[in-house]
Amino acid sequence: MIEQGLFKRHYVGKDGFHWWIGQIAEGRTWVENRGGTAIFTNEEQEGYGERFKVRIMGYHTAVPSELTDEELPWASVVYPVTAGSGNVFSQTCNIKQGDFVYGFFLDGEDGQQPTIMGVIGYNEYQSVLKNVPDTKFVPYLGLDASEQTPVAALKTLGSGGTTLDQTGAKGQGASVNDTVIVSNNPYLKDRCLVDADTGVEIQYQAFAQPTSCEPLPLGRIQVQLRNAIQGIEDLRKSVYGIAEGANEVLANIENEINKKIEEAARWIASAMKWVYEQVEKQVYKRIETALRNVYNLAFPNEKGKVKQTSDTILDTIACFFRKLIDKLFDMILGFIKSTIDKVINVPVCFIEKFAGNVLGALSGIINGLFSGIGDLISGVVGIVDAGLDLAGDIIGMIDDIFSFLNCDDRPECSEINEWNIRNGASPLEKGDITAVIDRAKGLATQTKQVGLDALNNAEDLVDFDPQSLFDGLEECNTDPFKCGSPVLQLFGDGGAGAAGNLIIGAAGDIIGVDMVSFGAGYGQNTRARAYDKCGNGRGAVLKPVFGSVPLDDDDSPSGLIGIDVGGAGGNPDIRFGPFAPNLYPFPGAPDRAIATSPFNPGGLVYDSPAYGIGPSFTRPPFDDQGVSPVTFEDTCIDVEFEVRRSAVQDNRIQFRLIELDEGEVYYGTGEVAFNFTGSDASGDAFVGAIKEIRCMEVGKDYLVTGYEEWGEAVRNPLKISNKQKTVSLDDTVRKSVVSEQTVERVIPGTAGTPGGKATIQLEYDGVTGGFERDGDREIGFKDNDGDDRNTKLKILAGNAEFSQDGRSIIGSGEVRLELSWNDNINTAGLALSKVKFDVGGRHYELVQYDGGSYDQESEDEVTFFIPTEGGTSATDPRVVQEVVRTETVELFSDGDYLDLQISIIGVGSPPSLLDGDDNDPRRINRVSQNATHATFRKENGRVLFRVNDPDATGPDNGPSATTAPAPAGVGGPYTPPPIVYDGGGVGIIDVIVIESGTGFLPGPDGSTGGDGRTWAEVGDTVVKKPDGRWDIPIPPGNNYCVEAGSIVTLPLGTTVITTTNDGRGGEETIIGGSPYVMKRAGCFTTPELVNVELPPGDIYSIIMYLCEIIVINPGFGYTPGDKVIIEPDRGAVAEAVIDRYGRVIEVKVIETGEGFKELPKIYIQSETGYNAELRAKLCVDRVGDKTPDDDRIINVVDCVGLVADGYLDGKPYYGPYHEHNGRKMVGAEHSNSSHAFLDAANNRDFNTSQFIDEDQLNTFNSNPNVE
Amino acid sequence: MADKINYDSYKLGTKDGELRFGSITAGNEIDSVLIRNTMNYRHYIEMCRTGEDFRKDGTILRSPGSCVIRSGDNVGKGIPGVYIESVSGDLILRAPSGKVRIEGVDIELTANGYNGKTGNVNISANEKIILDAGQMIDIKAKVNVKIFSDKTVDVIGKSVLNIYGAFVQSVDAAAVSKTSKGSKGTVTKHELKMRKL
User: Contact, A1227 vs A456, CB < 8 A?
Assistant: First the structure.
């Protein structure tokens, strides 16, 4: 202080600024200054506020034994101007022990009043003094040992990182800003990544619905059981991880597991309770019907007793069901406890069988109950119990319990019923109620008679055999799947059949969708999502593109009936929607949500794609640079034909472009195929000549073929005349010749007693209005009017008559039977189609109508012989005469070749020929009436047509200058050109990637899982115990012991040799990569993962190019000329279309580029515009099955193409098979050795074919442990 | 474009809680603002900037403990003290393991449908639905009211039971017609109706 007074002549700063760097000392030495408790008066303030002990580098020794933390000077803190200075105008500083700070001395050179100005952030280089003993200045986490580590801060470094672990006196680790590194164990890396987008937070929840919308909540049961299994699994895995371990829930894992089991049991029991109630309802219904009969039959003095007894019965049954329901929770609880370790994935098949088992067990009790009730009733009124009609299977009665949804005015049901707060909607399985009923029927065979008293008193009745609940569950595949590529899911608004493969980019993002099928029947609320069964990928946003697809049986890909739509603005091309025309279209707005070119040239809509091509087939060929301008103009030339014929017939001459072979894609604008006919030309039948113009590819051959009116190719070859300008067809007349021949047939006689008769059962097809017996020898049939006999069946002769119910003939010997009718097929339908019966080893039919031509009034007659049974009648052998009709078709031809003639009369397109329509797409600017450039010719027996460019010289001048060259480098099957289906159904013609997401696997990586989570990491060892329970996957480096019969799966490429397990077994070699069944007990250390390339599975190779740019947000303020930037562009170029409001309404792709492996970033460089948001739409070119050495190539896992041949033990089977006696069997050929049948039934893990799992194939193909 | 990048994220935090702007979640989405309890990753308020249509520009409130809203101390009669509106989607209140309890001076449930399939109040319970009024219960419908049970229906008027109708018909299991004056119904038709219940 003296020095200060004597020598300090200036204010702070003028005497020099002495700054320093130091480290905050341990908190115990200064923390009391901060109080730490809530204070309400100044007296309660213990310290001086925020001040710290700081060890200054170079000024204080680094050796704590020489200078303790307590001896360090106090440092105050300066704050930014935004923080205030204290009280309500303040921020607290955020300094912790171990922090490196810098500052200055308020007292200058004296160095006793340090003031902290700032904090130096941590980084890995600060660990330079890490291993120096007895020293400070080593970074460590500022938390005290008594404090918890924030879960939000838990992170790990990968194997290549440096771990800054605990080195401070009381630190718990090191902090690198928001990254707390607690371990460099690579196994823990993924398990430390904790936030709300991970773990149980992304489990889906199923919403309860009204029973009218959810007859049997199978999907909800599935979700709850799945969540319980995964929740418990996470708890059990926490012993290997730190994420959950740091959370507050693990004080007692067992308690948490029990809590989750009970939670799931409550939810599932509430769903199953509904099943009980439906059964109870049917029981009441059945008993009520029976008791009503009793009440009706009872004497008046008995009716009171009947009423009383009825009340007793119904009340007892009600109590019985109360007991059942009370037991339900415990039953479900037991089921889950027994199941939880045996099931990794929960397919809906599993739930169906479980529900069926419960229902079946219940029905067995109910059937016994019915048997007992009869005794009680008969004791009251003396009615035999058979009269009660209570026998029968209760399940048979409840077939209709799920059929009450037929009312037209049922409230609308919600489409979204499975939800997660972070990932949104998911398709909830509805299950197959029929499968549940069928299973219950199959199980409800054992009926134990139960009296009412027993029902009332016997508690054991309400206890099911627990084992019965597990019957058949093993048939469903609940094992883990191999993790791999995500699949496309489309759900939420009806529809089925659409499928596509997701294309995974190099960075694990989704960059495109290769549509395989469009499906039909979708609504505008249909949603698309990338479903990763192991939950690896995240963040992808997909949007379906709707298009009109054909609905008729011939063209529809699945025969489904969709909904009629008008499209936006009445356009059938509905794209993103809306489906209905806009009621108030904004002026100047684009008429579609996204651009239509070149993605959809001409605004046309596509037919369903050929496999693998998808809607991108319209891509034009590349030029030398691999870039293709998008143009479809002028690849054809108009040819004028004269069509002349001499009669109205449906024969025709077809022209077809023969270069359009399978596997080739057509890019021209000429017509591919067309017909000239007489009966429908110009819309009217005609005789004479008309002229027609067709735009035909220049320099390409068309195959010319004639067809008869019944569809066959003409028998007489086409004739070329008129200097190769005319081709003619000669009709063939088909004439049917019917010949009749009478033959005799001997019917053997029988021995027996004369007068005996036999009964012949009659089978009536197509009865509409019923029938009645009109005397012994006539049956009358009515149509839907029901007022008269439109059809009669009469016995004209013979010793026979109809049975009383009219369904059989009783008689013997020769009988003559006639079916006659006077029945208009267009009025109230037909009374009968046919009568069928078998007698004497022969089959007879009397036919009124059999689908062909029909006579309103006619008859059919047959004579047959009824042999009577031995011992009842004796007959001699008889000879019956029968008329056999033979119909043959003879063909005649007059050879005049005048029936259909096609002549070339001009090449080129004078405006008059096109009716002045300047917009006709076939127009070209060549005016020529010279037909010399078009000719017919014969070649190898075929008639060909070709037109050459009239502007060029020479007869065969090849393709015109404007004709697109043959496609190159674009393989794949041929897809027909676009077809417009006005008012057709709605399919998903494409899926747009709005957000590409990240973390998706391009193929299997060796990990396994399912139901949206990874169960076993790629390096984990998996063990299934002999009792069927799965142990939690074991990370590498853990000692593990197994019993004989355990199934062990080590990581691919690893091998272990077991040691003894408590003196037993050992010396057994396990090869990794496939399941191995332990022959003996043993122990081993779970091996470390080795780098082995996994088999890729079923893949195909593609090249991606930019085919469209989608405007997500049009932005504002843009001007024409603003540049579209594509990063990376890979040769692609685009330009924006700006409307008068400065919005981007379209971005045209000028050059498509190719070889994209990620979704390019696209934006507009503008000095005036803002906020336009654009997305790239990448399209697909297949490049063949083999993967060339080309960095443009992406390999796509074919998740759609795989179709299981059948099911073996409830699991899909993809291996070789053969058919034997009409059934599929395992193996390519049949042999005498035992081999299994394939079941055609699906376990319905998912509903649509796109979810068939390629992993199953890999399992079958690559398991060295299984022969 | 795979992993989202934001170089402008900003964070304030202590060991107990934090406030983040522009942070990226494990699900590769960007949060505009995230307020969370750093000791429990299930406790946060999140304003999402990216994601699917429901999540983008959405807000998530998550708390393992109770989430309490208490407000409206100063608002007058008829003024909403709490107002929750789902503008275009569904409003879902769910307590899968607990009760949904609604209490008020008056409770109004109104379904305003726009066609024959909407405008329904659908109350389903797999045990009981209890209507217990201190004074009266009115059940009105413009077209039809049905009360049916698979077991028993008891209509009890402890003092007076009145049944009014222009045409009254009662049918029991004895199938004896007890039609009122003027009724044209037949027993057969009513039996069929009973069977359909």
Answer: no
Nearest CA in chain B to A326: B127
Residues in chain B, how many?
Answer: 197
Find residue A641's DSSP bridge partners: A692, A904
Kindly give, in sequence order, each residue whose CB lies less than 8 Å from that of residue B109, ignoring residues fewer than 6 positions away.
B121
Is A510 within 8 Å of chain B by CB? no
* B-proximal residues of A, 1141-1180, CB under 8 Å: 1158-1161
A835 CA: distance to closest CA in chain B (Å): 34
- Sheet with A673-677, strands from edge to edge, namely A673-677, A652-657, A702-707, A942-947, A934-939
Q: Quick one: DSSP state of residue A16?
A: B
The β-bridge partners of A797 are A816
Residue numbers in B near A153 (CB within 8 A): 15, 38
Angle at A948 between CA A947 and CA A949, to 5 degrees: 130
Yes or no, beta carbons of B39 and A150 under 8 Å apart: yes
Cross-chain Cβ contact A277/B124 below 8 Å: no
pLDDT tens readout for residues A44-92:
666 677 889 999 988 998 888 889 999 999 999 998 888 877 766 778 8
**CB count, 10 Å around CB of A352?**
28
CB atoms within 10 A of CB A447: 17
- Whole-angstrom Cα distance, residue A1033 to residue A1022? 5
Distance from CA of A504 to the nearest CA of B (A): 10
Q: How far apart are CA A254 and CA A262, in angstroms?
A: 12
Both structure tokens of A1053: 């490429």
Cα–Cα distance, A339 to A327 (Å, whole number) = 18
Closest Cβ opposite residue B122 in set A210, A266, A416: A210
Chain B: residue nearest A180 by CA? B15
Task: Report which of A875, A866, A870, A872 is spatially closest to residue A799, judged by C-alpha positions.
Answer: A866
A425-474: pLDDT as tens digits: 777 777 666 777 776 666 655 445 455 555 555 555 556 666 667 777 77
Give the span between the Cα atoms of A1042 and A1054, in whole angstroms.
18
| Cα dihedral value A100, A103, A105, A106, nearest 10 | -130
Using a CB-CB cut-off of 8 Å, the residues of chain B touching A318 are: 151
In chain A, residues with a C-beta closer than 8 Å to the C-beta of B172 are: 295
Q: Which residues contact A693 (CB under 8 A, 6 or more apart)?
A: A638, A639, A640, A641, A909, A913, A914, A922
A 855-914 near B (Cβ less than 8 A): none
CA–CA–CA angle A305, A311, A312 (5° rounding): 90
Q: How far is CA B94 from CA A187, A207, A213, A443, A1023, in A?
A: 37, 8, 18, 36, 39
Interface test with B, best of A95, A146, A147, A151 (most B CBs within 10 A): A151
Torsion sign (Cα): A38, A43, A46, A51: positive
Q: Which residues of A touch B44 (CB under 8 A)?
A: 196
- Strands laid side by side in the A174-176 sheet: A154-155, A179-181, A174-176
Return contacts of B11-16, CB within 8 angstroms, 24+ apart.
Answer: B11/A178, B13/A152, B13/A178, B13/B38, B14/A94, B14/B38, B15/A143, B15/A147, B15/A148, B15/A149, B15/A150, B15/A153, B15/B39, B16/A150
Tell me the whole-structure pTM to 2 decimals.
0.60
Query: What ipTM does this complex have?
Result: 0.74
Give the residue from A99, A422, A503 with the most B CB atoms within 10 Å of its CB, the best one to mutate.
A422
Cis amide bond preceding A1004, omega within 30: no
Q: How far is residue A269's CA from residue A260's CA, in Å, rounded to a whole number?
A: 14
Contact of A304 with chain B, judged by CB distance below 8 Å, is answered with no
State residue A638's pLDDT score. 80
Distance CA A449, CA A458 (A): 13
Unique residue bearing structure tokens 């193909």: A1261
